[in-house]
Amino acid sequence: MTPEELQAARDRTVPDVVAGGLRVLFCGINPSLMTGATGHHFAHPGNRFWPVLHRSGFTPRQLKPGEQTELLRYGLGITNVVARATARADELSAEEFREGGKILAAKVEDLRPRWLAVVGVTAYRTAFGRRTARIGPQDHTIGGARVWALPNPSGLNAHWTAQTMAEEYGRLLAHVDPDPALSTEEP
């Protein structure tokens, strides 16, 4: 991607990867410019979402961003708190996060996932007015779904390694209903 192509993706939106009744709906902060340009969630090469999703056990192999619709086979989906693409999340206003939280709550109520996993605790705090929220399970539901705040997989998040993120995502997986598509048992 050229710098011009990336800048042309500013403010684009990317379609959600969703279906009704998902096991987990992963919710990013907002699309990166690379995601906006490609139309694939977590597309920036430095983003650790796809490796962490596999390492934690959510997928049987590491998917590529272009394979994002395969998540639906495992009862998983992707959306964002704020729909518009930016170079950095700090380009978003608190009002955008709060409005995005309202839109997300309505989306979750409509789709009825069992879990909403917000990948970015600061975005979660701002969008839902949970100033003291920490990584892990939350004490309330959104749109009927249980909520888990996960570390942001962006390469800019130096506080977490891919391994420690995979451990936290694995903690969530331990609370999620088993996926028959990942079962190794013979019928």
UniProtKB/TrEMBL annotation:
Its EC number is 3.2.2.28. Gene3D superfamilies: Uracil-DNA glycosylase-like domain. One of its GO terms (molecular function) is hydrolase activity, acting on glycosyl bonds. InterPro entries: MUG/TDG, Uracil-DNA_glycosylase-like, Uracil-DNA_glycosylase-like_sf. It is an enzyme of class 3 (hydrolase). Residues 15-170 form the Uracil-DNA glycosylase-like domain. The keyword Hydrolase applies. Keywords: DNA damage, DNA repair, Glycosidase, Hydrolase. It comes from the Bacteria. PANTHER family: G/T AND G/U MISMATCH-SPECIFIC DNA GLYCOSYLASE, G_T MISMATCH-SPECIFIC THYMINE DNA GLYCOSYLASE. This is G/U mismatch-specific DNA glycosylase. The gene is mug.
